[in-house]
């Protein structure tokens, strides 16, 4: 697999299609699995990690020709950061320094991390709200791998994981939401507290410990033991439409009560993105978030959602450097980012990159 | 991941920018609310009782000293319960058996459940005892090599090969 080719697209989670895709960026499920005859990663020696990787890699190759395997140990920092930005590997997986890898499916809607916190972390994602489709896909893949790998499993505790917070189903069912109006109307804390009460966790764009850049939030289950996979999926499937409704109501409220203010904010955001000569990643995300909401509310009519989604990812540090074809320092990146945004947003309507 | 201020699971992951540098915080519900209190409505400020609870929480945290339980070690992967407590990561599948008495209350606390109710592997698992044995033998091998006891290492390696063949590796 040639990573540079991936820069031509925005990846599954930013495709901008599927049900409720004005608010739900993507639906994602991951499963944590471990081999039964090896220690967990933090107690495995380097050579054991190598053996674990070989076993799993062989199983992956036997399951499908469509999964491209990348050894991560030989990859540059830039490549690793690039994969993190595309949500194909985690930040922890990127920063490790022992034998490990990732298998990536067509359209990037499946990735299998090998030797992350657990031996196997399977992830599937679809654009928009479609958790049941994601479950069907990941469940089938899990079955196929399990025919070839002997997983650590106990009848009482289910799949055994390195961290007890994942034991049982080993599942994390999540959706990534774009909630700019709830942030702006300062109702987001209230929503989080309500979610907290029903045991759902809220995270920023790039997982644990990351800030909610661009008003993107990931909402997922945090209990993995006791409920079945389908029950956990149902919990989320029932709650997410309510959050969507809150966000829509908040947007309508902004439109009806503060239309001029909102229109001004959206237009200024658009204006800065079109004209800036140096701009940070954070500011870009912040402004793109306003623009994205502006398009969804009909306040901007010469730009389309897929373009904005693409700009979210193409202006991330590693993507920008890949697109420019050269490593850049922070200051140089800010200049390059501004220049890229100007070129993509000038001359009226732009839809897809070439 | 544990809350930075108490033993509960961290469910809020907050990054604050202070003087241009990001600071990460991982908090449970209560501590996240305290952290975010200045931003919230005045009516949402934590009650005195919660403040008191948090204070007790941090006091006990500070007083945590190694207990006999912490020194208990898994015979298979050699991890001690104390190491698990400080890192939050177990060393091998067998730990769930060895530290069972300590882990069950923790699982109850995290998941409000202690019994799996979801998917199981489709085919019958290979003999778990033999697999645990494999982890242990590989550990023995490492130690024999480290001690330069190559006779022992050769013997252990033969055992590993035999077991691996039996398990169809």
**Reported CATH architecture of the largest domain in chain A:** 2-Layer Sandwich
Q: Please identify the top-level CATH class of the largest domain in chain A.
A: Alpha Beta
CATH superfamily of the largest domain in chain A, called what?
Glutamine synthetase/guanido kinase, catalytic domain
Residue fraction in strands of chain A: 5-15%
- Which series of helices and strands of chain B comes N to C? EEHHHHHHHH
What's the number of structural domains of chain B?
A: 3
Radius of gyration of chain A: 21 Å
> What is the chain-wise order of helices and strands of chain A?
HEHEHHEEEHEEEHHEEHHHHHH
- Helix/strand-derived category of chain A reads alpha+beta
Low-pLDDT stretches of chain A are 349-354
Description:
The complex is a heterodimer of chains A (354) and B (169). Chain A is of the alpha+beta class. Chain A has helices at 3-6, 46-63, 77-85, 91-95, 131-146, 180-184, 188-197, 229-257, 259-275, 281-296, 305-314, 317-324, 330-345, and strands spanning 24-33, 68-71, 101-104, 110-114, 120-127, 153-154, 158-159, 171-178, 200-203, 216-221. Chain A folds into two domains: 3-227, Creatine Kinase, Chain A, domain 2 (2-Layer Sandwich), CATH 3.30.590.10; 247-345, no CATH class. In chain A, strand 3 (101-104) and strand 4 form a beta hairpin. In chain A, helix 3 crosses helix 12, helix 9 packs across helix 10 and helix 12 crosses helix 13. Chain B has 169 residues and is mainly α. Chain B has three domains: 12-64, no CATH class; 68-111, no CATH class; 128-166. Chain B has helices spanning 29-36, 48-62, 68-71, 81-87, 95-98, 100-111, 128-146, 150-166; strands at residues 12-18, 21-27. Chain B has a two-stranded antiparallel sheet. Mean pLDDT of chain B is 75; it is low at 38-63. Chains A and B meet through helix 5, strand 6, strand 7, helix 7 and strand 9 of A and strand 1, strand 2, helix 1, helix 6 and helix 7 of B.
């Amino acid at each position: 697999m040639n990573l540079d080719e991936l820069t031509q697209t925005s990846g599954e989670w930013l495709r901008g299609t599927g049900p409720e895709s004005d608010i739900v960026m993507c639906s994602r499920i991951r499963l944590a699995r471990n081999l039964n005859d090896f220690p967990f990663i933090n107690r495995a020696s380097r050579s054991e990690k190598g053996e674990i990787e070989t076993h799993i890699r062989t199983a992956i190759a036997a399951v499908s020709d469509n999964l491209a395997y990348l050894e991560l140990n030989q990859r540059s920092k830039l490549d690793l950061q690039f994969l993190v930005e595309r949500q194909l590997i985690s930040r922890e997986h990127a920063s490790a320094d022992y034998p490990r890898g990732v298998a990536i499916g067509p359209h990037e809607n499946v990735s299998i991390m090998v030797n992350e916190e657990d031996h196997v972390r399977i992830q599937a994602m679809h654009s928009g709200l479609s958790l049941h489709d994601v479950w069907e896909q990941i469940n089938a893949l899990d079955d196929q791998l399990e025919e070839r790998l002997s997983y650590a499993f106990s009848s009482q505790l289910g799949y055994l994981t390195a961290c007890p917070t994942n034991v049982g189903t080993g599942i994390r069912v999540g959706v990534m939401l774009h909630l700019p109006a709830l942030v702006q109307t300062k109702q987001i804390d209230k929503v989080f507290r309500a979610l907290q009460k029903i045991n759902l966790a809220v995270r920023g764009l790039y997982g644990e410990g990351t800030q909610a850049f661009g008003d993107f939030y990931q909402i997922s289950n945090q209990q993995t033991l006791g409920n079945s996979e389908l029950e956990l999926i149902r919990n989320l499937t029932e709650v997410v439409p309510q959050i969507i409704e809150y966000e829509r109501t908040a947007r309508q409220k902004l439109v009806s009560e503060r239309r001029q203010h909102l229109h001004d904010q959206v237009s200024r955001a658009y204006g800065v993105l079109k004209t800036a000569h140096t701009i940070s990643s954070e500011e870009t995300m912040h402004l793109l978030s306003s623009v994205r909401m502006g398009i969804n509310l009909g306040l901007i009519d010469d730009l389309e959602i897929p373009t904005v989604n693409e700009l979210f990812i193409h202006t991330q540090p590693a993507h920008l450097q890949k697109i420019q074809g050269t490593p850049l320092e922070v200051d140089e990146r800010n200049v390059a980012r501004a220049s890229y945004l100007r070129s993509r947003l000038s001359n009226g309507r732009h839809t897809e990159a070439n | 991941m544990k809350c930075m201020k108490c033993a509960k699971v961290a469910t809020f992951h907050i990054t604050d920018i202070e003087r241009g540098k990001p600071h990460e915080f991982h908090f449970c519900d209560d501590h996240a609310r305290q952290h975010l209190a200045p931003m919230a409505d005045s009516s949402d400020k934590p009650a005195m009782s919660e403040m008191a609870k948090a204070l007790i929480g941090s006091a006990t945290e500070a007083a945590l000293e190694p207990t006999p339980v912490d020194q208990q070690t898994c015979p298979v992967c050699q991890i001690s319960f104390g190491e698990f407590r400080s890192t939050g990561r177990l060393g091998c599948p067998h730990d769930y058996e060895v530290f069972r008495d300590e882990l069950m209350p923790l699982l109850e606390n995290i998941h409000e459940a202690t019994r799996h109710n979801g998917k199981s592997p489709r085919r019958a698992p290979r003999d778990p005892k033999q697999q645990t044995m494999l982890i242990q033998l590989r550990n023995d091998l490492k130690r024999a090599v480290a001690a330069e006891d190559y006779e022992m290492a050769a013997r252990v390696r033969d055992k590993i090969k035999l077991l691996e063949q039996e398990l169809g590796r």
